[in-house]
Amino acid sequence: MRWNAIFALAGLLVAAALLGAGGASAGRGGDDLVFVQTNELDGNQVVVFERERDGSLDREGTFATGGNGGNVAPGTASDRLGSQGSLVYDRKHDLLFAVNAGSNTISVFEVRGEELDLEQVLPSGGQFPASVAVHGDLVYVLNAGGAGILQGFEIDDDELEPLSGSARSLGLANTNPPNFLTSPGQVGFTPDGRKLIVTTKASRSTIDVYTVGRDGLLSDAAVLNPSATPVPFAFTFDRKKRLVVGEAAMSSVTTYDIDRDGTLDGPQSQTDGQAALCWIVGARGFFYVSNTGSNNVSGYRIDRDGQPTLIGPTGIVATTGAGPIDMTTSKNGRFLYVQTGTAGTIEEFRVNRDGTLTPLGVVTGLPVGQEGIASTDS
């Protein structure tokens, strides 16, 4: 009897601990959520959706960022920020970062279950903030207007503190707001956090690579790598940590090896033959790109040597509403969500084992000009 009582008590303690951990997780971003930035010019907002087991999205709430959205010049309906990574979730701190391009600010939300608590609205360190990169406690914001300024921040007690001496100029000659063809497209860390990468699109068709010091500061100058095909826009990484870039002018995907000194080697490219391939995301070992000029999504495989090839005879794995732009994925890459800037929808897809996509549904009721999408479990 004594041992039975001890085992029973132990079981209760374990169960209580698990429930306590689960409750804490649910209160700190434990749900499977998808966030969508409305980018409205008269008041930016973030819409929160819960992902159901079947991949469908249920709208849970809308939260003001405390700033205004932006629109590149000349104004467009489909791609008002001209960037990837304008809304970024940080799993380590359960924080969500949103750009307010029309206010030159960034907003910091704490994710609490299905609720967002606005913790900060602070200057972005430049004009027209368009993309955010996070690694550990370090954050860099890409300001796309004017010369193009990278501004660093540190995360301290779930708040951002500007990193002294971190600002770096890209040396561009954009206006504010910038032209959508020449504004830099994305900022992002390499998987190990030792390099910071920026794409300059048509400004000079380079992929700029900075070295990140132990103090979080960037090298004074970047290595300017010409892209294999013109207008490098958005990027991600494959399983071998190669850089995988969407290059818009020829609607190509190109992979690169990243050397220690910041040079890019061994480019291998494959076009999908569509119009304006810009955004790119990986899921289940495949890579998907939004062709905003063709209203569809193409799929790629990348072989062991880094060569991209199309899924199926044409590469087209889905059609979408007008103006597909940024994308995000769900846990284990089973679901893909595609944002449309012109139609104002989120297109839901299941990612199949062969890389094809199965349409699940369409979320409507979002504004034209929305841009920025992220997930807690991508």
Written account of the structure:
- It contains 1 helix and 30 strands.
- 7% of the residues lie in helices and 46% in strands.
- The N and C termini lie far apart (48 Å).
- Strands 8, 9, 10, 11 and 12 form a 5-stranded antiparallel beta sheet that branches.
- A hairpin with a 5-residue loop joins β9 and β10.
- The chain has one helix spanning 2-27, and strands at 33-37, 45-51, 57-64, 87-90, 95-100, 105-112, 115-123, 129-135, 138-143, 149-156, 159-162, 168-169, 186-189, 195-199, 206-211, 223-226, 232-237, 243-247, 252-258, 264-271, 277-283, 286-291, 296-302, 308-310, 316-319, 324-329, 335-340, 345-351, 357-363, 373-375.
- The longest helix is centred in the N-terminal third of the chain and has 26 residues, at 2-27.
- With 378 residues, the protein is mostly beta strands.
- The protein has one domain (31-375): Methylamine Dehydrogenase, Chain H.
List the keywords.
about 375 residues; mainly beta; Methylamine Dehydrogenase, Chain H; 1 helix; about 45% strand; globular
Topology:
Layout: H1 2-27, E1 33-37, E2 45-51, E3 57-64, E4 87-90, E5 95-100, E6 105-112, E7 115-123, E8 129-135, E9 138-143, E10 149-156, E11 159-162, E12 168-169, E13 186-189, E14 195-199, E15 206-211, E16 223-226, E17 232-237, E18 243-247, E19 252-258, E20 264-271, E21 277-283, E22 286-291, E23 296-302, E24 308-310, E25 316-319, E26 324-329, E27 335-340, E28 345-351, E29 357-363, E30 373-375
Antiparallel strand pairs: 1-2, 1-30, 2-3, 4-5, 5-6, 6-7, 8-9, 9-10, 10-11, 10-12, 13-14, 14-15, 15-16, 17-18, 18-19, 19-20, 21-22, 22-23, 23-24, 23-25, 26-27, 27-28, 28-29
